[in-house]
Amino acid sequence: MLNLDTITLPDEMNWIDEFAWSRVSAGASRTIGGKLIIEESQTASMAGRPVTLSNDNAWLTYSDAEMLRSWADDLNKTMTLTMHNSAIYQVKFRLWEAPVVQWEPLILNANRSAGDWGILSIKLVMN
Q1: Of the candidates 3, 4, 21, which has an alpha carbon nearest to the alpha carbon of residue 71?
Q2: N- to C-terminal Cα separation, the chain
Q3: Torsion 21-86-8-11 (CA) sign
Q4: Distance between CA 11 and CA 118 in Å, rounded?
Q5: CB 8 within 8 A of CB 1
Q6: 55-79 pLDDT per residue, tens
Q7: Among 18, 19, 94, 127, which is 20 to 30 Å from 110 by CA?
Q8: How far apart are CA 77 and CA 90, in angstroms?
């Protein structure tokens, strides 16, 4: 089961950028004489690791999507993400990469109701 605080997310959601981050970072530059200088650093923290949850089969109700959107409007909101494998992470929304909550209705309808289903995608970052 996949949970973000009090909302149960669709089990079909995948962590699509799980391997797009590393604790090691490096920068390279050259001296005037052409010598390559590589500077490396490593962090002990998982802070800053992106967690994008998405899948075309990840359906969530309109009311739950609205709740997620309202959380994204709460400055500095930290949430507990419990993954399928029971791993637990403290996360925030990646507000600098809007939209952080995407919800596309399965059936286009001008008058949405709380129980309408849509496809969900969320951009989070480990805290």
Answers
A1: 4
A2: 21
A3: positive
A4: 14
A5: yes
A6: 999 999 999 999 999 999 999 899 9
A7: 94
A8: 10
* Strands annotated E in the chain: 2-4, 7-9, 14-15, 24-30, 36-42, 50-61, 79-82, 88-93, 101-105, 117-126
| Confidence check: pLDDT of 44 > 80 | no
Q: What gap in Å lies between CA 84 and CA 37, rounded to an integer? A: 42
CB 91 within 8 A of CB 81: yes
Closest CA relative to residue 47, chosen from 121, 125, 118, 99:
125
Distance CA 106, CA 91 (A): 28
